[in-house]
Amino acid sequence: MPRPRTRIQQKNSETILEAALEVFSAQGFRGATLDQIAEVAGLSKPNLLYYFSSKEAIHQALLADLLDTWLDPLRAMNPVGEPVAEVMAYMRRKLEMSRDFPRESRLFANEVLQGGHRLREAIEGELKALVEEKAVVLRRWMDEGRIARLDPVHLLFSIWALTQHYADFDMQVRAVLGEGHDPYAEAGDFLETLYTRLLRP
Amino acid sequence: MPRPRTRIQQKNSETILEAALEVFSAQGFRGATLDQIAEVAGLSKPNLLYYFSSKEAIHQALLADLLDTWLDPLRAMNPVGEPVAEVMAYMRRKLEMSRDFPRESRLFANEVLQGGHRLREAIEGELKALVEEKAVVLRRWMDEGRIARLDPVHLLFSIWALTQHYADFDMQVRAVLGEGHDPYAEAGDFLETLYTRLLRP
DNA sequence: TTGGGTTTTGACCGGATGGTAAGCAGTTGC
DNA sequence: GCAACTGCTTACCATCCGGTCAAAACCCAA
Prior knowledge:
Chain A is an all-alpha fold.
């Protein structure tokens, strides 16, 4: 199905993708059913398939949208900015994305966890290229003595791991912390300290 | 089905659980089918159900086994040891578990990611209790000025996130690093540096 | 109002999947 | 060698699920 044209097509595709995000992120691709998505969307199952040609197609549309926004924070890391502040700001943005878009994070995690064959191309292409580009910048900052010398790629991995953890393992985080905690606020403080100490040259 | 008695029961339950781990960790609960597990195990589907009463039961057995071994590294953190070395050793053991038991890590991740209702009890009970016990120890070390003052629970979260990332996002890690890398060796070095700097009082 | 397009639906299909029944085969203890 | 139990298989069932189809409902311009 080509991109929406009329108002009603626009609105319904959005409703479907919103519902699909809800269900896919909570159940994984195989775990989600069209009936569930239809129910969340408030539409009938055949109606979903009027807008998207298959379950696969809905999932694909979701992943395609996702990847763009997912890489934005890293793209925004400014090669001519102040190194420590830039890395710190990147970490902050990733943490905010985990807080504000946990479903997107879990959709991504579900996908990669299960071999990520639907994302392999994008990961080996776009993502890898962007990481290599930013690794060059980080290495330069290290050469200039403006941040500590570290493996730049594993530095990025650490930011992904530490921030996405709060979205992907949300249930565990909340269960262990118990009542009366603001996981993301605490994580912000903790990670601020961590990267301050790690990056100091 | 009660615990195995005869030799053949012992052997076949093990074969089934091994196959189930393979399939569940790669596909999630809903994504796995009894036929797949049966094929990997080299047994017929009805034979699986002779040993385990249902798909659910196989999964439960797997999770029950898992939790014990999963908590071992943290249990082993010695309250009367040298603080920095103890935390570092814990991180090392967790990283080794990611390397040597990635399927177990992914089984766990799949489960928690999808709301973790099958693990909720264990997480809110055993896991939380153990974390609180170790948090007391960490706080004491901080009070004694033997490691840096940090939120002890988020310190543990960071170890989980950073080590499990290499198992759970293995596909991404390998795709981004490309050929000719030993992810776990590099991660070991990186995390050694990270926690050395983070923990220094 | 009418006619043509768009949107929605109920009924249905075929294959996959978890699980069962009933009997056959193997093993073990005597 | 034989009974009795354990282990295993073939055939089958019911349900779920992705997807189809034909027709109904809706919308809107002329």
